[in-house]
Amino acid sequence: MPRPRLEDAPTRLLAAGLALFARQGCERVNSNAIARAAGLGIGTFYLHFANKYALLRALQLRTLDGLRAARQAAVAAVGSESGLEEQVRASVEAAVAFAAEHPEAYRVCFGRERTAPAHAGPVVSESTRGIASALAAWQRAGVIEPALDPALAARAYLAMETGMLLWWLEDPGRTAADKLVETLVRGHPALAAQVRG
Amino acid sequence: MPRPRLEDAPTRLLAAGLALFARQGCERVNSNAIARAAGLGIGTFYLHFANKYALLRALQLRTLDGLRAARQAAVAAVGSESGLEEQVRASVEAAVAFAAEHPEAYRVCFGRERTAPAHAGPVVSESTRGIASALAAWQRAGVIEPALDPALAARAYLAMETGMLLWWLEDPGRTAADKLVETLVRGHPALAAQVRG
Amino acid sequence: MPRPRLEDAPTRLLAAGLALFARQGCERVNSNAIARAAGLGIGTFYLHFANKYALLRALQLRTLDGLRAARQAAVAAVGSESGLEEQVRASVEAAVAFAAEHPEAYRVCFGRERTAPAHAGPVVSESTRGIASALAAWQRAGVIEPALDPALAARAYLAMETGMLLWWLEDPGRTAADKLVETLVRGHPALAAQVRG
Amino acid sequence: MPRPRLEDAPTRLLAAGLALFARQGCERVNSNAIARAAGLGIGTFYLHFANKYALLRALQLRTLDGLRAARQAAVAAVGSESGLEEQVRASVEAAVAFAAEHPEAYRVCFGRERTAPAHAGPVVSESTRGIASALAAWQRAGVIEPALDPALAARAYLAMETGMLLWWLEDPGRTAADKLVETLVRGHPALAAQVRG
DNA sequence: AATGAATGAGATTTCATTCAT
DNA sequence: TATGAATGAAATCTCATTCAT
Q1: Residues A183, B152: C-beta atoms closer than 8 Å
Q2: Predicted local distance difference test score (pLDDT) of residue B148
Q3: Helix A103-110 crosses helix A84-101 at what angle (to 10 degrees)?
Q4: Which nucleotide has its C1' atom closest to residue A33's CA?
C-alpha cells in the first residue's frame, strides 16, 4: 500500500497555475506567484516548465484530453445503434457536465487564454476534429445531408458550445443545465442537417 | 515643444491602437508604442485616454456601433414585409461584409481582447441585445416558436457567428464568404425555431 | 465707484497656490493644477511666475511681512513705556492670532515647505531678525542680562513658537489659545533672562 | 544574475538612503538612485522596502531609538539622586552629542523629512513622550509646579531643541556646543517651572 | 532536485515647460 | 495677455530569469 505523500512539484505547479490563471488570467499572473502558491521555491518553477505559457499549454492539453474522453465515453454508453439525436445529446450532456465539474480548467482552456499566448498552440482546431469526424461518419452513413461541410459545421457548433458554456460558467445561476443542453442540441448541425425520411 | 497636426491626436491614436492591438494583442502593446506609432509624443497619449484599456474600449464601442448600424441598414433595405429568412440573411450578410471590410476592428472587438481588460466593459452582452430583441419581436408576431428563449438563443447564435468570423478572418482563403453566410443562416435560431405553416 | 471686477491673474494664482500647497505640500502640487484651480489657462501661470517655487516664495514673503507687521502693531499698541512681559505677551498674542486667522499661510510659510524648495530662500533667518533686535535693544536698556546671545536666543524661541503653532494648527482643539500664549511667554528668553531688581 | 554581497542588502540600502536623503531630501531622491548608490540592482530595492518612504521610516525609527537610548543612558549615568538641573543637562548634552555624531541621521529624522511623506508616521509625537513623562514624574515628586502641562511643555521644548540642533548642524561653526547646551538648558521647562524652596 | 536573493529591461504615468494661436 | 495641446525626461514599480548555494 503506497503511503500518501505530498504531491510532486509539477502537479503542485499545475494546480496552482490553474487556480491563478482562472482567477486572474495568464497575463496577470507571474511565475513567481505560481511557484509561491504551489508552496515551492521560485527557482523550482523553471525546473519543470520553461515559462508560464508552457504550464498553460500543459493545462490546456490535459483539459482537451479529459473533455474528449468524457464525450467519447458518453457516446459509447448510449451505443452506436442508438439514434442520431441520442448520440448528439449524450455528447452535449457530457460537455456540459465536464464544464460544470471543472469550471476553472474549462475557462483556462477555452476562455480568454485560448489564443493569448504565443507559445501555447491553438486549442480550438484540436477540439474541432472530433466533432468534424463524427459528422463526416454520419454523412457517409447517409444520416445527414452530403451538402454539409463537416469541418465548417463542426467549427460553427463548437464556437457556439464554447461561447455558451463560458458564459454559463460565469454565473451558473443564469440558466439550468438542461435548458443549456436543449439549446445546444437544437443548434447542433447534425440535427439541422438530418436527412428526414 | 508642441507641433501642429494634420489629423487630430485622438484619431491618430485610435488608428495606431487598432493596428497594434490587432497585430499583437492588448497585453503585448504599451501606450508609449501606440503614441509613437501615431507619430505623437509619449505624454500625448494620456491627454486623450486614461490608459490603453480606455483606448481599447473606445475602439470596441466604435466597432459595435458600426456593426449594429450595418445590420440595421441591411435589414431595413430588404423591407419589413419580406420573409423571415430574407431578413436573417440580410443581417448575416451585413455582419460578414463588415468583418471582411474591417478585419482589424472586428478582431479587436470580438477576439482575444473581448474580455481581457478590467477597464473595458463586456462586449458580447451589448451585441446580444439586438439579436435577442429581434427574436422576441418575431415571437410576438407568431413567426417563431414561443418556447424559444430569445436571450439564450441570441447568445448562442452570436457565439457561433463571432467564432466563425474570427476564424475566417485569420485566413479568408479558408472558405468563401457565401458558404460562411450559408452556414450561419442555417444555424440561426430564428430559422430553426420557425413556425412552419 | 470702482466696479467690482474679477481679481487679476497673479492674485488668483497666489490664492490657488496657497490652498493647494497647504493641503498637499509643494512637492505634491504641480503648476498646471494651480493654474486650473485659479481658473486660468496652463500657460498663464508662467506669465506671472517662473515656477511653483517662485510662487511659494511670494506666498512666504507675504506671510512673513504680515506677521511682522502684526507683531509690531501689537507691541506699539501696548506702548513702549509698558513692561517687558506686557510687550512680550502682546507680540506672542499677535503671532498666535495671526496663525489662527491665516492657518494656510502660516503652514505654507513655516511648515514642511519652509526649507524644501531650492529656489525659495530661508524663511527662519528672516523672521529671527525681529526678535533678535528686540532682545538686543532690551539688553542695551539693561532690562535683560548681557550674557544672553540675542541671535541664538531668538532662534531658539522662534523654533519653539513655530513648532507649537504648527502643531496647534493641525488640530486647534488640542489646546486653548491662551494656554498656548502662556506656554510661549513662559519660554520666552526675554523673561527668562530678565534682570530682577 | 545575482551577486554575493559582503554586507547585506538592507544595510547597504539604509546607508545609501541616509546619505542621499540627508543631502537632497526625500522628494529629490529616487529609489533607483538609492539602489545604485548602494551598489545594488534596481529591483533589489523593492525586495527590501516597499518604496522610498518605507526606507525613510526605517531610518527615522532607528534614529529615534538611538536618541532615546542615548538620553536615557546619560540620565542614568548622573544618577537619579542628582539634582533636576544636572539630569536635564545630561539629557540635553546627550542630544547635542548625538546630533553631532549622527548629523545625517538627525537631519533625516527631524528635518524637512519629518512630516513630508504620507507613509512615514509622525516623528515628533513619539519623541515627545519621553520628555513629557519625565516632566510628569518630577511634577509628582513635587519638584516642579503642578500648573505646568507636561505634554504641552514637552512639545514646546522639543520644537526648540530640534530647531536649534538642525540649525546648528547646517553649520556647526556657528556656535560652540556648550553654548548651545546652555541655551537649551535655560529654556527647558523643568527648570523654568522649578519649585524654588 | 530545490531554493530565493539579485537583476535590469521595460511598462506605466506624471508634470514642468514650450509655443503657435 | 491668455491659452492649452503637445512634449519627453524622469520616476515608480514589476517580473522573467539566473545562479550560487
Answers
A1: yes
A2: 87
A3: 100
A4: F15
Specify the 3-state DSSP secondary structure of A190.
helix
Q: Average pLDDT, stretch A155-174?
A: 91
Q: DSSP secondary-structure letter at A143?
A: S
Contact D189, D148 (CB under 8 A): yes
Check CB contact under 8 Å for B111 and A115.
yes
- Of B111, B163, B189, Cβ closest to residue A159: B163
Residues making up chain C, counted from first to last = 197
* CA separation for the pair B23, D142 (Å, rounded): 83
Residue among C149, C155, C183 minimizing CB distance to D156: C183
Spell out the alpha helix ranges (H) of C38-176.
42-48, 52-78, 84-101, 103-110, 124-140, 150-170
Least Cα separation, residue C186 to chain D (angstroms): 8
Residues A24 and A26: their CA atoms lie apart, in Å, by 7
For residues C122 and C64, the answer to whether their CB atoms sit within 8 Å is no
DSSP of A12-54: HHHHHHHHHHHHH-GGG--HHHHHHHTT--HHHHHHH-SSHHH
Chains that touch A (3 or more CB pairs under 8 A): B
pLDDT digits (tens, 9 = 90+) for D141-163: 999 999 888 988 999 899 899 98
Q: For chain B, what is the HEC assignment?
A: CCCCCCCCHHHHHHHHHHHHHHHHCHHHCCHHHHHHHCCCCHHHHHHHCCCHHHHHHHHHHHHHHHHHHHHHHHHHHHCCCCCHHHHHHHHHHHHHHHHHHCHHHHHHHHCHHHCCCCCCCCCHHHHHHHHHHHHHHHHHCCCECCCCCHHHHHHHHHHHHHHHHHHHHHCHHHCCHHHHHHHHHHHCHHHHCECCC
CA-to-C1' distance for B35 and E11, Å?
14
Residue D66 C-alpha cell reads as 538611538
Which of these ranges, A106-120, C61-75, D115-129, has the smallest mean pLDDT?
A: D115-129
A87/A96 Cα distance (integer angstroms): 14
Residues of chain B with pLDDT under 50: 1-5, 118-120
In angstroms, rounded to a whole number, what is the distance separating the alpha carbons of residues B157 and A161? 10
Give this prediction's pTM.
0.88
Which residue, A132, A155, A130, is CA-closest to A68? A130
Quick one: pLDDT at residue A1?
Answer: 40
Contacts of A116 in chain B (CB under 8 A): 25, 27, 112, 116
pLDDT band at C5 (very low <50, low <70, confident <90, very high): very low
How far from C130 is each of B13, C153, D31, CA to CA, in Å? 60, 12, 41
CB A69 within 8 Å of CB A131: no
Q: Which domains does chain D have, with CATH numbers?
A: 1-49 (1.10.10.60), 53-192 (1.10.357.10)
Rounded, the Å distance between the CA of C65 and C1' of F3 is: 33
What average pLDDT does this structure show over A35-57? 95
